[in-house]
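Re: folding output
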Amino acid sequence: MSKRKQHNPVFKAKVALEALKGERTVTELASRFDIHPTMIHQWKKALVDGASDVFECGGTSKAPPPDKEALKNLHAKIGKLTVERYFLAEKLRRAMIEWDHPKLAIIKQCHLLSFSRSIYYHEPKGESTENLNLMFEIDRQFLNTPFYGVQQMTWHLRARGRMVNVKRVRRLMQLMGLMPIYQKPHTSIPAKGHKKYPYLLQGMKIDRPNQVWSAYITYIPLAKGFIYLVAIMDWHSRKVLAWRLSNTMDVQFCVDALDDAVNRYGSPEIFNTYQGSQFTS
């Protein structure tokens, strides 16, 4: 098992600053620094959230929050040790069973050791040669197209003359631990515990500027990744009052766009958005 790569704080700060500039997409940054895109999102958020601590009164700062990466590594290590402990205990119990014991039958020995008799007798057969060949082909194709899901991988194998169905490909990909890497917008998921506001526009006549504003987030596909766009618009005039771009889905660029619109045009009577976490937070 390969050792998990550790990144020092200087490297994390460098990557987070590059993401904060917004000159490159997350996909481009991930390729440049050889890291997973999720880390870039986490490090950029940590940089933005912790920036205010630098300007605390008296030059003192708050106690640093726990390192999420270190905490994740610790949980992973605990899980690994648990699995190894269980594996070792099972091996020891299996080795303690004696086939030719003069007084204790196998079933009695298994009962005394709290060991399932069916597990003791079971001999794993492993995957067939055909499945192993399929897994090799899936792995080779996944390296070239890591965004292939189960359905696309099934189509690819069928195009190469492999008579496989979706269920078989799904089982083999799960066995190999392959998860497609693709952009998941999910811009409408509310944050847990946040207030859900009522819809105020039912049957309302909108006949003047600054009566109703709306905000919308979408994502724009680029040659190398995605970038997010938030726009603030007046419903009566259909004018785009403010907009911002960001290479990560966070709250700050939405707040910046709204602040810009309010500073330039004043506050609306109603501000209407869908209730994703960027707006309910």
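--- second protein (sequence, then structure) ---
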Amino acid sequence: MENDELLQRFLRRYDKPATVDAYPRDLQQFTQFVGKPLSEITAHDVAAFRSYLTFAEWRRVTQHGHYSPTSTGRKLDVVRRFIRWAVGEGVSSIGEVELQAVTATDRRVHNAARRHRRRRPT
């Protein structure tokens, strides 16, 4: 199943006008950034997208970039929701702790998730 079809199935769950407007753009940006099918996306891909957004946010402050901290948080939130949904659909296998670590916008949440991940037996 292609990413576009999966995106459409996921987005049918939302009906608020602001959500219907922003979420498709955010998810399209994510899937274009990653450039591979959802089934092949890893936590490293999500972390790379987070780094890209963080850099764009920093650039906005220093050189008139594009994303505010609120926009960055929204983009990461919808990616997290989408991946959780995809795991439930059996399309993705990214673990919850790993997903929390790479999408956290609060440094304390990020560090706690990373500590938890290190304690898990491999």
